[in-house]
Amino acid sequence: MATIQPPRSSLPAGAEPPAPPSARLDSSDSNTITSTMAGDDGQVDPAHRLPDQQHFNGSTEKPRLPRLSIETLPELDAIPTLMSPRHNTMNPFRRVHNPLEIDDYFTGPRDTQKHSKWPLFMQMHGSILPKMMLPLLGVGAWTTMLTVINFKVTNLGIHNILLTVLGFVVGMGLSFRSSTAYERYSEGRRYWASLLLACQTLGRVYWVHAKEREGELGKKDVLAKLTVLNLLVAFSVALKHRLRFEPYTCYDDISHLVAHLDTFAQRATEEEPDKTLKSLQPPGFFKAVGEYIGVSFAASNPRKVIKKASRPLGNLPLEILCYLATYTDELIANGQLPVPMQQTLAYNNMAILNDVLVGTDRVLSTPLPIAYAIAIAQITWVYILLLPFQLLPTLNWITIPATIAAAYIILGLLMIGREIENPFGRDVNDLPLESYCAQVAEDMDIIACQKKRTTNAEWIENIDNKPLWPLSNSGWQVWMNRGEDMIREAVAQKLESNFETRKELDKLQSEMSLMDKVRRMSKATGCNV
Questions:
Q1: What positions belong to coiled-coil segments (predicted)?
Q2: Does the structure show a pLDDT above 80 at 108?
Q3: Could you say which of 121, 183, 185, 300 has the lowest number of CB atoms within 10 Å?
Q4: What residue segments make up the domains of the chain, in order of their start?
Q5: Whole-angstrom Cα distance, residue 56 to residue 37?
Q6: How far apart are CA 116 and CA 126, in angstroms?
Q7: Whole-number Å distance between alpha carbons of 112 and 367
Q8: pTM of the model
């Protein structure tokens, strides 16, 4: 999807440029581009034809955009500007583009930028309740059956000593399960924070500290810097897909970032198109519902795509790191990164990215030992199934709702630990990896927007610079006309002045708060103050 803008040179003098259309590229736009690519004889150069104008001789091959070289490219002023597709396309890092999409409510990870005004106990998005519906129905049926047998056939009540003994063991098991799962969740978040820090630092090193050469080489250096900033974004997105067992490069948020790289994943994507397309297919309706309500038989093997691969898939984040390392070596060899501290900073932060890659792999591939997981699940279910026998002598028919309530509490803690044990998945309570990748992309764009500055006088000596604010509202030029002793004396007074100002502001805020309370009380009582 592209947006067409008329060339500035074609606008008459004094005329305002029309607003860019937001619609898709239609036939009229296609004709406009075609006419600009036509020669003097009115015929379109075959190298410049659009895909739907080319003749395929009955071939069913999917049309592709022509590759234009510098020699065959027409004059830039004669071609309407094709804006970047990112201007009119959805954010590729968003899970769901439509805010009213029903699937966005039941799947995750949760969008942390959204705000809900519902009380927490009434919120369903992110709640573990949907996955507990079937277990709670089973517990309710089991308790109802035992209660009916107890009152209609024979007494099933037993002493409640097991409540104390087994309750202590179950509490310890659930506490261990929850604390272990949250530790993994917190560790995963810590690794992604380290990734963001390393990307920001490397972005500054490459864009700000790396010197640019003169002439055409300087233009190459700028484009190379932009390419490397995109590689930092590609590393974060590739890591996200690796942690979700998505080994190919056909996904919308990464295909444009690594298409120019020679990687194992790129080769596998090109040579196994059938498996690539199959990996993009969403699960069926009943399978998706089964996974949502926690039916274990409906859950797919997350490593299924990797197991069915017939070619090496490689390690895409690691391969991207290799490209970053070779670029850094070239900068140093060309003398564009001459300061040793900056060189050390670049290599150290690449090591941090490697540590993030290995650390997240460790969190993903080292779950709670299966013996612990099985034992805790079995102990919990034994406790719940024996609970009605101990409640019947005391609660009678109230045993049914009481057991269901107890099962809700116990199973809730068990399933929360199970859900956050892998913090990199697609559950609602998992880490919002899409948001982290979007943050990296935004930070790289912010760094790339910084001007090339040969001196700092442009912003230090700016007229709007007020170096001693709030003590003085005078600007840079005013203080430059004063003596150094006067400047230092003003700096010494700044701390005391700020302290007195804060005290006055606190006093004023307290008085305003008191007046506001009096005003509300008078309004409530109907008295005029």
A1: none
A2: no
A3: 121
A4: 1-12+20-84, 476-525
A5: 20
A6: 12
A7: 26
A8: 0.72
